[in-house]
Amino acid sequence: MGRRLWRFLQVLVEDLDAARHRDPAARTRLEVALGYPGLHAVWVYRVTHRMWREPGLRLAARLASQAARAATGVEIHPGAVLGQRLFIDHGMGVVIGETAVVGDDVVLFHGSTLGGKSMTHGKRHPTLGDRVVVGAGAKVLGPVWVGDGAQIGANAVVVKDVPADATAVGVPAVVRTRPASAPAAELVEDPAIYI
Ligand SMILES: CC(C)(COP(=O)(O)OP(=O)(O)OC[C@H]1O[C@@H](n2cnc3c(N)ncnc32)[C@H](O)[C@@H]1OP(=O)(O)O)[C@@H](O)C(=O)NCCC(=O)NCCS
Fold first, then answer.
1. How many angstroms does the Cα of residue 156 sit away from the middle of ligand 1?
2. In total, how many domains does the chain have?
3. Domain of life, per the record (predicted)?
4. pLDDT at position 160 over 90
5. 7: containing domain
6. What is the value of pTM for the model shown?
7. What is the pLDDT of residue 24?
C-alpha cells in the first residue's frame, strides 16, 4: 500500500476516533462508523477535496458532495480546507462554504453555517482556528477570523473577528471574554456536556 493511501486512511480513522472521543454516547468504532452522518460527510469531503485539486474532476467532486448532502444533511464544498479530526455533531443543516478554512480538532454542531455575506468571488467565508466550537444554529458569515479555542454560542451570528479563547454569543455576536477560572480546554475536549 502506498504511503499516501496509508496516510489518507489514517486521517479517516482519526476522524472516526474524534467523533468517538467527543461523544460519550458513542460506544464502539463500528457504531460511530455506521451511525454518524457528520462523520460520513467529513469522509466524503476527504475524497472530494482531493478530486477538487484536479480541474477535470471538479464537476464530479461537486456532484459527490451533493449526494453526500442528500444522505447526511451536511453540505461541505469540496474546495473548503478542513483540518484534521473535525467532528460535526448531529450533522443536519451544517453548511461549509467554498473558501472556508477550518483548523484541527474543531467541533461544529447541527445547523451551523460557515457562509458568505457577498456574491463576489475570492475569499468570502470564515477562517476558524484550532479547537473552535461552533454551537447549534450559529452562523459565521464573511471572511472573518475565529481564533484558536474560541467558542461560538448556539444561534449566534458572527460577522466580526473573534479572538482566540473568547466566547461570542448573540445576534450580532458580541465577545464575552471567558473568565480566567473557566475550564476552556475541558469545554472543547468534551462538547457533549452541553447535550
Ligand atoms: C456560548 C456558550 C459556549 C457559553 O457557555 P459558558 O462559557 O458556560 O457561558 P455561560 O453559560 O456561563 O453564559 C455566559 C453568558 O452568556 C449568555 N449565553 C450563553 N450562551 C448563549 C447563547 N447561545 N446565546 C446568547 N447568550 C448566551 C448567558 O446567558 C450568560 O449571560 P450573562 O453573563 O448575562 O448571565 C454556550 O452557552 C453555548 O451556546 N454552547 C453551544 C452548545 C450547543 O450548541 N450545544 C448543542 C448540543 S445538541
1. 10
2. 1
3. Bacteria
4. yes
5. 2-194
6. 0.90
7. 86
